[in-house]
Design brief:
- The chain is α/β, with parallel strands linked by helices.
- It has helices spanning 17-23, 28-35, 49-53, 72-84, 93-97, 109-119, 171-183, 251-254, 272-281, 289-296, 302-306, and strands spanning 6-11, 37-40, 60-66, 69-71, 85-91, 134-137, 140-143, 147-152, 162-164.
- It has a 5-stranded parallel beta sheet with strand order 2-1-3-5-9, with helices on both faces. A two-stranded antiparallel ribbon has the order 4-8.
- The mean pLDDT is 94.
Amino acid sequence: MTQKPKVAFYWCASCGGCEEAVVDLAEAILDVVAQVDIVFWPVALDFKRKDVEALPEGAILATFLNGAIRTSEQEEMAHLLRRKSRLMIAFGSCSHTGGVPGLANLFRREAILETVYRTTASTVNPEGVLPQPESRYDGQTLTLPVFDDSVRPLDQVVEVDYYLPGCAPTPKLVAQALGVLLSGDLPEKGSVLAPDRALCDECPRKASKPEKLALKAFRRSSEVIADPEQCLLAQGLLCLGPVTRGGCEALCVSGNMPCTGCFGPTSRVRDYGGKAISAIASIVDSNDEEEIRRILEKIPDPTGTFYRYSLPASLLRRRRPDSAAA
């Protein structure tokens, strides 16, 4: 009997949404199971690290790894799965470009631990204990993964063959990616498995987008009820569709919310945040420095807005370690 191709799913620094994207295949997941042998998926099935270690090198056709890399254990698992897999897919925004966890690169490791374990209002830790890689308790040695200085996308740790973008990737894209891998008709190595065009091209509101945008003010989603038919950017809402790769089926825009950029850049853009800043600056309708400042002040968190999903993969990567505010 011919053996089915083996696939693996693993998560690192992530929220679990990419795992939900697989489950959201619904009944189509039965078609997937009929075609492949899932040999590692610890979030859903009782697999252990030793099961992967026992496999021959290259035994897995493809590993879908979601989540950024932050701890020593995550890095070890990425290297292990890379050795065991013929193809490595960076699955979702966090693995692709660093994702929301990557915004932690704005702070030093020590500052993060201090905040989480000592200074938040809900923390009860009278002795101020911080997690350690190794500690002794009741005569036993306990170990924890090392919490690294920086968050990294997968391709800064191991070689990646393909990228499946999104927070999370849509079930449609997941199914298409599996189909491509099983067909053997593989795209060029390093390809992003989503359309290489801006989201505006597939936006249901694109007919209402003015040929030339010129804004005197930006508005936040909490301040207005957006017209469900009109271009959100033309209404002053900070929609990043013009600089974001399509393929998400415009789900947020269809829900009357602006695009936040989770599918990342097209192939023509090196730094997503830089491109987004340039695009937004170009539609500010003023030549007066003070007026421009007032307009841009309506964007409360520029880094979190323009680099929300991509800081670790950007030219910036992180705040300088010697920065006093870090």
